[in-house]
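Worked example

This section walks through a single chain of length 63. The input is the sequence exactly as stored; nothing has been trimmed or padded.
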Amino acid sequence: MSNKCEICGKGQTSGNNVSHSNRHTRRKWDANIQTVKVIEGGTPKHIKVCTKCLRAGKVTKAV
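Given that input, the structure is written out below as tokens.
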């Protein structure tokens, strides 16, 4: 199951941990993905949405 926003497609990014001695090891950053209940096509549905899309009002949450 993917950890990706179904609205904008934001997901995991990767990079390096850099220690004090400047050693590089790979690491990942997870996007802040929330599962919310929304009204889509007149029916309630659970989708995964990033918090940026939630705050921007790109989804209509079901009550």
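What to look for: The first strand starts at residue 13 and ends at 18.
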